[in-house]
Design brief:
Layout: H1 7-16, E1 18-21, H2 29-41, E2 48-49, E3 59-63, H3 70-78, H4 81-89, E4 95-104, E5 112-115, E6 123-124, E7 128-134, E8 144-147, E9 186-187, E10 196-199, E11 205-207, E12 216-224, E13 229-230
Antiparallel strand pairs: 1-10, 2-3, 3-4, 4-12, 5-11, 6-13, 7-10, 7-12, 8-9, 8-11
Helix pairs in contact: 2-3
Protein backbone atom coordinates (compact mmCIF):
# COMPACT_ATOMS: atom_id res chain seq x y z
CA UNK A 1 0.00 0.00 0.00
CA UNK A 2 1.48 3.32 -1.09
CA UNK A 3 1.05 6.28 1.26
CA UNK A 4 1.10 9.81 -0.18
CA UNK A 5 2.55 12.45 2.10
CA UNK A 6 1.26 16.00 2.02
CA UNK A 7 3.36 18.78 0.51
CA UNK A 8 3.62 20.27 4.01
CA UNK A 9 5.05 17.05 5.45
CA UNK A 10 7.69 16.93 2.72
CA UNK A 11 8.52 20.60 3.25
CA UNK A 12 8.80 20.09 7.02
CA UNK A 13 11.15 17.16 6.50
CA UNK A 14 13.44 19.22 4.32
CA UNK A 15 13.34 22.17 6.73
CA UNK A 16 13.43 20.43 10.12
CA UNK A 17 14.94 17.04 9.23
CA UNK A 18 12.14 15.27 11.10
CA UNK A 19 8.40 14.55 10.86
CA UNK A 20 5.89 12.53 12.85
CA UNK A 21 3.60 10.31 10.76
CA UNK A 22 0.51 9.20 12.65
CA UNK A 23 -0.98 5.70 12.44
CA UNK A 24 1.19 4.70 9.48
CA UNK A 25 2.40 1.27 10.63
CA UNK A 26 -0.49 -0.02 12.75
CA UNK A 27 -0.92 -3.18 10.61
CA UNK A 28 2.78 -3.99 11.10
CA UNK A 29 3.27 -3.58 14.84
CA UNK A 30 2.44 -7.14 15.86
CA UNK A 31 4.74 -8.55 13.18
CA UNK A 32 7.57 -6.28 14.36
CA UNK A 33 7.00 -7.46 17.94
CA UNK A 34 7.43 -11.06 16.81
CA UNK A 35 10.68 -10.22 15.04
CA UNK A 36 11.90 -8.21 18.02
CA UNK A 37 11.38 -11.20 20.34
CA UNK A 38 13.27 -13.45 17.94
CA UNK A 39 16.30 -11.15 18.18
CA UNK A 40 16.08 -11.03 21.99
CA UNK A 41 16.03 -14.82 22.13
CA UNK A 42 18.89 -15.14 19.66
CA UNK A 43 20.89 -11.89 19.40
CA UNK A 44 23.13 -11.24 16.42
CA UNK A 45 26.90 -10.64 16.40
CA UNK A 46 26.44 -6.88 16.88
CA UNK A 47 24.24 -7.09 19.99
CA UNK A 48 25.33 -4.70 22.73
CA UNK A 49 24.44 -4.12 26.37
CA UNK A 50 25.02 -0.43 27.17
CA UNK A 51 24.77 -0.73 30.97
CA UNK A 52 27.44 -2.71 32.78
CA UNK A 53 26.50 -1.80 36.37
CA UNK A 54 24.23 -4.25 38.19
CA UNK A 55 20.77 -3.00 39.24
CA UNK A 56 20.97 0.07 36.96
CA UNK A 57 18.48 -1.29 34.44
CA UNK A 58 19.02 -2.56 30.95
CA UNK A 59 19.69 -0.77 27.66
CA UNK A 60 20.04 -3.35 24.89
CA UNK A 61 20.48 -2.82 21.16
CA UNK A 62 21.15 -4.98 18.12
CA UNK A 63 21.23 -4.40 14.38
CA UNK A 64 21.70 -5.89 10.91
CA UNK A 65 19.43 -8.85 11.53
CA UNK A 66 16.89 -8.26 8.77
CA UNK A 67 18.21 -11.00 6.49
CA UNK A 68 17.56 -13.68 9.14
CA UNK A 69 14.42 -12.23 10.74
CA UNK A 70 11.60 -12.76 8.27
CA UNK A 71 9.28 -10.25 9.96
CA UNK A 72 11.84 -7.46 9.59
CA UNK A 73 12.51 -8.40 5.95
CA UNK A 74 8.77 -8.36 5.22
CA UNK A 75 8.44 -4.90 6.75
CA UNK A 76 11.40 -3.51 4.80
CA UNK A 77 10.22 -4.73 1.40
CA UNK A 78 6.44 -4.64 1.75
CA UNK A 79 5.52 -1.77 4.10
CA UNK A 80 5.13 1.86 2.89
CA UNK A 81 8.42 2.83 4.60
CA UNK A 82 10.73 3.02 1.56
CA UNK A 83 8.12 4.86 -0.49
CA UNK A 84 7.79 7.47 2.24
CA UNK A 85 11.56 8.03 2.25
CA UNK A 86 11.47 8.38 -1.54
CA UNK A 87 8.91 11.18 -1.17
CA UNK A 88 10.68 13.08 1.61
CA UNK A 89 14.06 12.94 -0.15
CA UNK A 90 12.88 13.22 -3.76
CA UNK A 91 14.70 9.97 -4.56
CA UNK A 92 13.81 7.61 -7.39
CA UNK A 93 16.03 4.86 -5.96
CA UNK A 94 15.86 3.74 -2.31
CA UNK A 95 18.04 1.05 -0.73
CA UNK A 96 17.85 -0.57 2.68
CA UNK A 97 20.82 0.42 4.83
CA UNK A 98 20.01 -1.54 7.98
CA UNK A 99 17.56 -2.02 10.84
CA UNK A 100 18.18 -1.53 14.57
CA UNK A 101 16.27 -2.48 17.73
CA UNK A 102 16.38 -0.75 21.12
CA UNK A 103 15.17 -2.00 24.49
CA UNK A 104 15.12 -0.06 27.76
CA UNK A 105 13.75 -1.83 30.80
CA UNK A 106 11.45 0.02 33.19
CA UNK A 107 13.44 2.08 35.68
CA UNK A 108 16.51 2.38 33.46
CA UNK A 109 18.10 5.77 34.09
CA UNK A 110 20.67 5.76 31.29
CA UNK A 111 19.80 8.16 28.49
CA UNK A 112 20.69 7.77 24.85
CA UNK A 113 22.98 10.80 24.49
CA UNK A 114 22.49 13.52 21.91
CA UNK A 115 24.14 12.38 18.68
CA UNK A 116 23.87 12.25 14.91
CA UNK A 117 23.73 8.85 13.22
CA UNK A 118 25.73 9.73 10.12
CA UNK A 119 29.18 10.07 11.79
CA UNK A 120 28.96 6.42 12.88
CA UNK A 121 28.13 5.25 9.37
CA UNK A 122 30.17 4.42 6.27
CA UNK A 123 27.98 6.65 4.11
CA UNK A 124 27.62 10.33 3.29
CA UNK A 125 24.75 12.22 1.69
CA UNK A 126 21.52 13.98 2.52
CA UNK A 127 18.89 11.72 0.95
CA UNK A 128 18.41 9.60 4.06
CA UNK A 129 15.56 8.48 6.27
CA UNK A 130 15.51 6.65 9.61
CA UNK A 131 12.22 5.52 11.15
CA UNK A 132 11.83 5.26 14.94
CA UNK A 133 8.84 3.04 15.62
CA UNK A 134 7.91 2.31 19.26
CA UNK A 135 6.12 -1.02 19.62
CA UNK A 136 3.70 0.43 22.17
CA UNK A 137 2.43 3.84 23.23
CA UNK A 138 5.16 6.22 24.45
CA UNK A 139 4.61 9.45 26.36
CA UNK A 140 6.30 12.67 25.32
CA UNK A 141 8.58 12.48 28.37
CA UNK A 142 9.70 8.99 27.33
CA UNK A 143 9.89 9.61 23.58
CA UNK A 144 12.56 10.48 21.02
CA UNK A 145 13.81 14.06 21.00
CA UNK A 146 15.16 15.67 17.82
CA UNK A 147 16.84 19.05 17.37
CA UNK A 148 15.04 20.54 14.40
CA UNK A 149 17.28 21.85 11.61
CA UNK A 150 20.44 20.21 12.97
CA UNK A 151 20.90 18.31 9.68
CA UNK A 152 22.14 21.65 8.34
CA UNK A 153 25.15 21.93 10.66
CA UNK A 154 28.32 22.80 8.72
CA UNK A 155 30.17 19.75 10.09
CA UNK A 156 29.26 16.46 11.69
CA UNK A 157 29.34 16.11 15.48
CA UNK A 158 31.94 13.87 17.16
CA UNK A 159 30.41 10.42 17.81
CA UNK A 160 30.83 8.62 21.14
CA UNK A 161 30.38 5.13 22.57
CA UNK A 162 27.14 4.96 24.54
CA UNK A 163 28.40 2.39 27.00
CA UNK A 164 31.23 4.60 28.32
CA UNK A 165 30.81 8.02 26.61
CA UNK A 166 34.31 7.78 25.10
CA UNK A 167 35.03 8.89 21.54
CA UNK A 168 34.06 6.38 18.85
CA UNK A 169 37.07 7.18 16.64
CA UNK A 170 40.68 7.83 17.57
CA UNK A 171 40.88 10.66 15.01
CA UNK A 172 38.22 13.35 15.42
CA UNK A 173 39.70 16.11 13.28
CA UNK A 174 36.75 16.01 10.87
CA UNK A 175 34.15 16.43 13.62
CA UNK A 176 32.97 19.25 15.86
CA UNK A 177 32.02 19.17 19.53
CA UNK A 178 28.38 18.92 20.54
CA UNK A 179 26.65 22.29 20.03
CA UNK A 180 24.35 23.75 22.66
CA UNK A 181 20.88 22.19 22.47
CA UNK A 182 18.18 24.85 22.18
CA UNK A 183 15.27 23.24 24.03
CA UNK A 184 12.83 25.61 22.32
CA UNK A 185 13.74 23.98 19.00
CA UNK A 186 13.42 20.35 20.10
CA UNK A 187 10.85 18.12 18.43
CA UNK A 188 9.22 15.90 21.09
CA UNK A 189 5.76 14.30 20.88
CA UNK A 190 3.54 11.66 22.44
CA UNK A 191 3.63 8.56 20.24
CA UNK A 192 0.71 6.19 19.77
CA UNK A 193 1.03 2.60 18.67
CA UNK A 194 1.45 2.61 14.87
CA UNK A 195 2.96 6.12 14.74
CA UNK A 196 6.50 6.68 13.49
CA UNK A 197 9.08 9.43 13.62
CA UNK A 198 11.12 9.80 10.43
CA UNK A 199 14.39 11.72 10.56
CA UNK A 200 17.46 12.52 8.50
CA UNK A 201 20.68 10.68 9.44
CA UNK A 202 22.26 14.08 10.19
CA UNK A 203 19.84 15.40 12.82
CA UNK A 204 20.85 15.46 16.47
CA UNK A 205 18.57 13.29 18.57
CA UNK A 206 18.38 11.54 21.94
CA UNK A 207 16.05 9.60 24.20
CA UNK A 208 15.55 9.66 27.94
CA UNK A 209 15.98 6.75 30.30
CA UNK A 210 12.80 4.78 30.90
CA UNK A 211 10.99 6.16 33.92
CA UNK A 212 7.81 4.26 33.13
CA UNK A 213 6.69 0.98 34.68
CA UNK A 214 6.95 -1.06 31.48
CA UNK A 215 9.73 -1.87 29.03
CA UNK A 216 10.23 0.44 26.05
CA UNK A 217 10.91 -1.32 22.76
CA UNK A 218 11.56 0.53 19.52
CA UNK A 219 12.28 -0.70 16.01
CA UNK A 220 14.30 1.50 13.67
CA UNK A 221 14.94 1.03 9.99
CA UNK A 222 17.25 3.17 7.85
CA UNK A 223 17.01 3.82 4.10
CA UNK A 224 19.34 5.61 1.68
CA UNK A 225 18.40 7.52 -1.47
CA UNK A 226 19.81 9.12 -4.61
CA UNK A 227 22.83 11.08 -3.35
CA UNK A 228 24.17 8.64 -0.75
CA UNK A 229 27.68 7.31 -1.34
CA UNK A 230 30.22 5.22 0.53
CA UNK A 231 32.85 7.00 2.64
CA UNK A 232 35.95 5.43 4.13
CA UNK A 233 36.24 6.89 7.63
CA UNK A 234 39.63 5.25 8.20
CA UNK A 235 38.40 3.29 11.22
CA UNK A 236 35.64 0.80 11.99
CA UNK A 237 32.19 2.29 11.65
CA UNK A 238 28.91 1.19 13.23
CA UNK A 239 27.64 -1.00 11.66
CA UNK A 240 31.11 -2.17 10.60
CA UNK A 241 30.25 -3.80 7.23
CA UNK A 242 33.63 -5.50 7.07
CA UNK A 243 34.80 -6.53 3.60
CA UNK A 244 32.52 -4.09 1.80
CA UNK A 245 35.26 -3.47 -0.79
CA UNK A 246 34.21 0.05 -1.84
CA UNK A 247 36.07 3.33 -2.33
CA UNK A 248 34.90 6.71 -1.07
CA UNK A 249 32.39 8.10 -3.55
CA UNK A 250 31.14 4.69 -4.73
CA UNK A 251 27.45 3.88 -4.75
CA UNK A 252 26.47 1.39 -2.05
CA UNK A 253 26.54 -2.14 -3.44
CA UNK A 254 23.09 -3.52 -4.17
CA UNK A 255 23.90 -7.10 -3.17
CA UNK A 256 24.46 -5.90 0.41
CA UNK A 257 21.96 -3.00 0.38
CA UNK A 258 19.16 -4.04 -1.99
CA UNK A 259 16.87 -1.61 -3.74
CA UNK A 260 13.37 -1.48 -2.27
CA UNK A 261 10.30 -0.86 -4.37
CA UNK A 262 8.87 2.63 -3.86
CA UNK A 263 5.73 2.18 -5.96
Amino acid sequence: MKIKLSDQQILNYKKDGVILIRNIFSPWIEKLRVGFEKVLKKPGPHARENIQIKNHGRFFEDYCNWERIEEFKDFIFNSPAAGIVAQTTGSNIVQIFHEHIFLKEAGTCKETPWHQDLPYYCVEGNDTGSFWIPLSEVSKKNSLKVLKGSHNLAQLVKPTKWSNDKSWYRNNENFIDMPKIDEKNVFNEDINEGDAILFNFKVLHSTSGNGHDKVRKAFSVRFIGNDVRYIDRGEETSPPFKGINLKSGDRMREDWFPKVSIN
